[in-house]
Amino acid sequence: xxxxxxxxxxxxxxxxxxxxxxxxxxxxxxxxxxxxxxxxxxxxxxxxxxxxxxxxxxxxxxxxxxxxxxxxxxxxxxxxxxxxxxxxxxxxxxxxxxxxxxxxxxxxxxxxxxxxxxxxxxxxxxxxxxxxxxxxxxxxxxxxxxxxxxxxxxxxxxxxxxxxxxxxxxxxxxxxxxxxxxxxxxxxxxxxxxxxxxxxxxxxxxxxxxxxxxxxxxxxxxxxxxxxxxxxxxxxxxxxxxxxxxxxxxxxxxxxxxxxxxxxxxxxxxxxxxxxxxxxxxxxxxxxxxxxxxxxxxxxxxxxxxxxxxxxxxxxxxxxxxxxxxxxxxxxxxxxxxxxxxxxxxxxxxxxxxxxxxxxxxxxxxxx
Length: 368
What we know:
The chain is built from 17 helices and ten strands. The chain is of the alpha+beta class and 368 residues long.
């Protein structure tokens, strides 16, 4: 219902712009205040958290209203691009993909051109340039708007599926409540998380608890760890050994909780060092900053990709998953089955690699 409400309100605001397709940033807060006033049980900060800057830290507009606004703008641009393969803006004409790619390598604004070229080059980048390190190649991906570009690429790769997780999340959460009624031998941590899903202390706590419990729904399986060795000719070869991660290691590959925001980079460095020891790389993950045990604590959500932090609301899980596909990255081996479950259950994306995990298939069946 919230998504539908946001869609109606944003479409109404866009209609008022008479083709400009732009909503002033302050308007989101006004709409959110109106929602809270009309629906006293709703929290305005779920719908809009305004832009602010403190020192070098910049937090962009956030909330369900702004997310819906960005998604609708992307849809409008898709329609525009279909009828306008070439465009001219401020005397800049982009004739082919190479010119557009070159612009994207060296520019991050104006945003209207950035979004247009990003959409126009989506097919080219995701086919001919698929093996390139996009996160370092395109500076815009490192900025606060980077998650919007990831969203755009995912929409290109999987048309009509970009809202699947958000649309199905509440249903999944309710099914979990039924699922856990029949579960025995749960540890204290899992029991506490389930209580938060069933009886959240404040709005949104059940969403957070649902994301936290996800990695614990699957029994860890053996994974291949590469080991570099040298032969008689001193040539390096790679051999593999099998290793089973703990549940905690599996969970931390998906989501970490950090009480103090000053510890974000330290935590990431520790993950990088652990991965380096095992000849692995750190893949995208979610960082929750704040005291999850304190109901009054303000929580911040980040999608962390290669030491770049996209601050997003509960959409962090959504963006984290999409980044694997938009940036052509592998799921982390410690938590591969968790992401395969999200891929199949929420996004209904075919498993072209034919990888099968018994726990993934079992859970999906139990939640039907």
